Amino acid sequence: MIKKTFKRAFRDSLPVLAGYLALGVGFGVLLQSKGYSFWWAILMSCTMFAGSGQYAGVDFLASGASIITTAVMTFIINARHFFYGFSLLDKYKGAGWFKPYMIFGLTDETYSIVCSAQLDDTVDHKKYYLFLTALDHSYWITGCTLGALLGGILPFSNEGIGYSMTALFIVIMVEQWLTTKEHLPVILGVCTTIVCLVIFGADLFIIPAMAFIALELVIFRKKLDKTSAREEADGGD
Amino acid sequence: MIDTKYSLILVAVMAGVTMLVRFLPFICFPEGRKRPRVVTYLGTVLPYAVIGMLVVYCFKDVSFFRYPYCIPELLAAALVAGLHIWRRNTLLSVFGGVAFYMVLVQLVF
After folding, report:
1. A11: containing domain
2. Looking at the structure, do residues A36 and A66 belong to the same domain, yes or no?
3. Residues in B 26-65 with any Cβ partner in A closer than 8 A
4. pLDDT of res. A155
5. How many other CB atoms are there within 10 angstroms of residue A152's CB atom?
6. pLDDT at A235
7. Same domain assignment for residues A86 and A198
8. ipTM value of the model?
9. Is the pTM of this model over 0.80?
10. Where do the structural domains in chain B lie, given as residue ranges?
11. Does B78 touch chain A (CB under 8 A)?
């Protein structure tokens, strides 16, 4: 069962493999261009495990940003991750000693796959989440370190390979669309984010977008919340 | 020259804040404690809303008003969606779309 679980996690992680290697190499190249050795790439990819957060981090380090600025900006850039735990409170429940590691490793990609994976009883769900997190983390560390070591000397042009992340999210969106009847949440997500991007700009839009999405989902709760109506009929939780 | 102490502190701050954001929901609603039903509800609908948010997030740095007007991104997105509706094979859709996008940005645009 463990072997099968690992195989499944590995297969599902393959789209992330390409994307993390590419984005990681990009980060490593950028970091070493500011005079940091590959040890810093290893340290940052191990402890932060955040794509856009680490890219911004290079700027903070290179420009000598203050601790306050760094903390606030990192919070803004990674704020979207705050949403992820909400859907995983039950999925990660009782996961044991590796639960903190799985929460630490909740990237956009890991979260999307965890939420969309249709797992049957032939795989160990908790171990699957663990393997997926650890595999994604290992790809990221490998990419970041390679980039810092190679320093931009690649035998081929990898321009555009980072699009695999976009492609992965589109695939998950299409898959969700085909397997559900209720499309309002994803429509709200797309439209609200576009409107906020236009109004607030690329640096500041994500927190307002999150706030409005949460608000809209609460407003449409009567229409969307099927589970709680049933639970209430059953007499509570 | 690199200020090692300053850099280490900064990396620690960034790692700490990132972790805090990810842990927050689990800290607010620990296992075994009853949580407001609206939180459980949000947990069930957020994955759908978030994936919409993430797709838009991926497009945040490309301009619709400057050459090449987001055309490679949109063409590749259409191919990814089309491939996926056709075959429902994640790896095929992702890698097909990426290969197409790489050809577009390296050779065409």
Report:
1. 2-163
2. yes
3. 26, 29, 31, 34-35, 37-61
4. 65
5. 12
6. 41
7. no
8. 0.91
9. yes
10. 1-58, 62-109
11. no
CA distance A82 to chain B (A): 5
Q: Rounded to an integer, what distance in angstroms lies between the CA atom of residue B54 and that of residue B60?
A: 10
| Same domain, residue pair A94 and A205 | no
Work out whether the CA dihedral A91, A94, A99, A100 comes out positive or negative.
positive
Structure-block tokens of residue A7: 């195989």
- Asked, for residue A17, whether it belongs to a domain, the answer is yes
> At residue A30, does pLDDT exceed 90?
no
* Number of helices and strands in chain B (H, E): 4, 0
Nearest CA of chain A to the CA of B68: how many Å? Answer: 14
Mean pLDDT of chain A: 90
Lowest mean pLDDT, pick from A49-63, A158-172, B32-46, B78-92 = A158-172
pLDDT digits (tens, 9 = 90+) for A198-212: 999 998 898 999 999
Q: How remote is the C-alpha of A101 from its chain's centroid?
A: 14
Residue A124 token pair: 């160990």
